[in-house]
Structure formats: structure tokens, C-alpha cells
Amino acid sequence: MNKEVLMVVESVSHEKGVSTDVLFEAIEQALATATAKKYREDARFAVSIDRESGSYDTFRTWEVVDPDRELEEGEEPNPDAELTLEEAKEKDPSLEIGDFYRIPAESVEFGRIVAQTAKQVIVQKVRDAERARVVDMYSARVGELVSGQVKKTSRDSVIVDLGNNAEAVLTRENLIPRDSFRIGDRVRALLVEINPEYRGPQLILTRTTPQVLIELFKIEVPEIAEDVIEIRGAARDPGSRAKIAVKTNDGRIDAVGACVGMRGSRVQAVSGELAGEKIDVVLWDEDPARLAINAMSPADVKSIFKDEDTHTMDIAVEEDNLAQAIGRGGQNVRLATELTGWNLQVMGEEEAARKQEEESLGYVNDFMNLLSVDEDVATVLVEEGFTDVEEVAYVPIEELNSIEGFDSEIVDELRNRARDALLTREIAGGTDGTPAQDLLEMEGMERGLAFELAAAGVVTMEDLAELSIADLLDIKAAVGEERAAELIMTARAPWFADEADDDADGTSEAETSAEEASAEEAAADEASADEVPVDETSAPVDEASARAPTVGDHYG
């Protein structure tokens, strides 16, 4: 090997950013491979190159192994490249298992074949080094927007050139439905993952997550980068509609107006980057109810009822505005639900009032039955926001004392009765008050209701399935007949599934029975054909009496 090779190694190292040691190791590996091909394939060789002069030495090597070791499937002892410990000790007493014994061997010339092998190894090493460099370069940028140029498109993905020999991939599921890119187009996307083991582009991009929307607003709205405006949440239906909630840390600045921009310039820039996605910018509020009202924009909310236990809000809108509030395919309410983190139920004003009245009446009946109080006292409790005897039993006493018309004597009596009711319910249930997992996870079941049912002895879905509507209303009147029926039918769903399976299993038996019945009918027809015909001279049959009787016929 001459100085020219050393110059090539130095040049490739600078151009590709690969250390000279990696390149020298590649050449050493190529020389060792060429030497093994010249002698015996099973023999092993090692080559050492002098980094200064370019000269190299070749050695034949044997690994010291344990003769009693367990061989892997398909592996066989290789005496051309292995020595037992006993054999190794005879050659060099200092050798141990795992060491290598080596002797000088004749070096091969660095000819055309060796150079070809070395080139292949070097190309692979350079490729691996470049991939490692890309991983190092972008590992700290996961979660950030990156920009690049479309290099290649296919039905399933888009390859993006990010520069510096870095490529990223946008798979079909990470593209907005209306995205249509051609080679050379500029594209912005969020770096979500780096996969060093992936054979193709290691950088995974997306354009569909809410974080993409947030990062684009950070670019378009300087006040966000300056922490004057804060983005508190975002929800998207990629390519169709999105909602983003913002708040200001400076009372002099309108957060929504700043994000929308003059004549909508800022929000339109973000929308254009996302294939025309319509974006609602709403004001964040720490009060979940106010946030829900803002999130339902552009719908006009008339009233809202919040249930902390079930993390649900019933939102009432005008009947004429109901379709807009729900949105196409439920899109508006779905995005508002995602943005607020609450389960939002949108309904017309009449339905909301009826539902509220039914629930309030149910709570009143519960209190009358469980606390043995009259309707007036129960109504006051409901109007003050109490929905369960547990709240009456353990809420801070100041809340009850603050109710107009309630003195300390009434409050103490109510709390004692509430605790007695809870104890009675616990004993009657005969359980620890914890519902089974299947009841908790049942569709339509609320956690608070599940615990109330468990306290009354209804622990599993099977227990609920065996109840009648009246039984369920006795336990929780506030559920209402319609919802009670829905819950019971959901709990009974496995029964019908089992019946369907039984019907499927019995199909073959039914087919066999049908075949047998058909055979019997055929035999009966043949027998009828052989019978003696009826004598036509027999007594005549009255036609009126022969026909089947119908409504209106008279007998006498």
C-alpha cells in the first residue's frame, strides 16, 4: 500500500465526515477477507495497517475456546480457526479462553480485487457513518417543525430531503387527506420519531397531529415565542377543521385577535400550510364551563350543566342552531370535547330542560327516600347542587350551614341520616362497595353510578342484566326510565351474543333436520299417488261448508 491510498483515505474522511480509523478498519477488513480467500475459507486472518507509512502486516488467528461449550444450532467446531485451551497452552501458556493466538502470515498484494472489496466495505462504512451523523444531528429536534424539499413520491409515502444528506419520510397516515405534493415542492412537517434501525429514511415526519398546528402558530405569531400569548390546547380533524385555545399573559393584548392577525392574515397563513384547514381560535378559560362555551364556537350556547362526577357537560343550544353546534358528522362537538377534556353532550333547549327536570326530580326522590325528608328539604338540597347522600354526609359542614333556612340542628340531623343511609346501603349490598371491572368499563356506564350500584349489591354486568327497569330506578331514580333501559340492554348484550353463537353452532343440525323433513315429504307424496282415488259418486259436498270460515260468517 502506498502513499496514494493514504491520501485517498484522508480525502474521503474530510468529504464524508468519517474518521480515518473507520476507513482504515474497512481496508484492513478487506485485506483480511482477500487473504482468507487466497488460503483456506475456514481460516481467519487479521491485518494491521501502519497509519503513517501505509505498510501492513498479516496474521493468521485462532480463538481459544472451551471444548465442552454448547454449540448453537447449525454450528460446528472449526479447527482451522479455533484452539482448545489445552492446545493453546502448549503454544503460549499465558493464553486463556476468549484470547486469540496469532502467527505472521504472507500478505496479499493490494491489487484490483482487494481494492474492489475495500471499496464495497468503505462505501458501507461511509453510509453507516452518515446515517449515524443524521441521527445525532436530529435527535435533539424531535417534536420540532422541519422543512425540506420533496425528493420522491409514491402511493404510500413522500420522501423529503432535509439537506446535509438527511432524508425523512411522510407515510400516508401522516399526511393530510388533501395533501398533494410533487417532486421539488417545499413541505413543513413535525419530526415525531427517529428510527436508527430503519433501512430507509430514519426520520419520521407527520402533518396530522395537533402539535403541528401549535408549532405553526409559534412561527406565525411572534407574541407566542415571546411568552406574551400562551397556547393551552389544540384539537384537529386534519385537513378539515381545527380548534386552538389561547390565553394572554398581558392584559393589554387580545390573545385571539393577535393569533388571527390583521384581516385574518396569520390564521390564513397557518391554514394555507395545512391544505386549507379551517381553524377556530378560541379564548382559554380556567373555568371548564366557560371554556366549553368558547370551544363550541361558532355555536351560541344558551345554558350548560356540569357534572363533576362523570366529567360531563350538557350543553343547550337553540333548536335552529343545533345542527351547527353538533357540526358535520359531529365534528364541532368532537373537537370541543377534545379541546376541553370534558364529555360534551349537545342538545336542544327543550330536551335539555326536560333532562334537567328529570334528573332533578330523581335526585329529589333519592333524598326523600334515603334521608326521610319532605319534598321541600330535598328540593333545597338539589337546588344547592347536592346530588348524592355521600355529599351530604361528608361535605364541609360550613356548606350546609350556609343554606338559607338550615340551622345547626337540621344540618346535624341531615348528616347523621346521610351517614346511616350510606351504612345501610353498604350492609345491604354485602360487598366492599367496589364494582367489577366489566361494570366499570361497560359502554355508557359512569364511574360514580357504578360505585352506587356496587354499594347496592349490583357488582357485575351480569348483576345489572338481571335487574328490571323498576329495580334500577329503586337504586338510582335520577337515572330515568330511558337511560335505565339502555344500561340494562347493554348489560344483556352478551346474552344475545351467546344465543347467536348457539344458533350458529346449530345451523348444521337444522340443515340435517330440513333434509330429513324433505325426504319424508317426498315419501308421503309418493304414497298419496298410490292411493285409490275418491269415489266421485259419493255424497256431494256443500261448497259453502267446504270453504274456510271467514269473519262475518254466521252459523245456526
Q: Measure the end-to-end span.
A: 130 Å
CATH architecture of the largest domain: Orthogonal Bundle
- Describe the sheet with the most strands: 5 strands, mixed, barrel
Task: Kindly state the percentage of residues in helix.
Answer: 40-55%
Radius of gyration: 41 Å
Keyphrases for this structure?
single chain; about 550 residues; alpha/beta; N Utilization Substance Protein A, Chain:P, domain 4; OB fold (Dihydrolipoamide Acetyltransferase, E2P); GMP Synthetase, Chain A, domain 3; 4 domains; 5-stranded mixed β-barrel; 4-stranded mixed beta sheet; 23 helices; 15 strands; about 45% helix; about 20% strand; disordered C terminus
Q: How is this structure best described in words?
A:
It is a single chain. With 556 residues, this protein is of the alpha/beta class. The chain folds into four domains: 3-67 and 77-131, N Utilization Substance Protein A, Chain:P, domain 4 (2-Layer Sandwich); 142-206, Beta Barrel (OB fold (Dihydrolipoamide Acetyltransferase, E2P)); 221-284, K homology (KH) domain (GMP Synthetase, Chain A, domain 3); 354-498, 5' to 3' exonuclease, C-terminal subdomain (DNA polymerase, domain 1). The chain has 23 helices and 15 strands. It has a five-stranded mixed barrel with strand order 5-6-7-9-8. Strands 1, 2, 3 and 4 form a four-stranded mixed beta sheet that branches. A three-stranded mixed beta sheet has the order 10-11-12, sandwiched between helices. Residues 510-514 and 517-556 have low confidence and may be disordered.
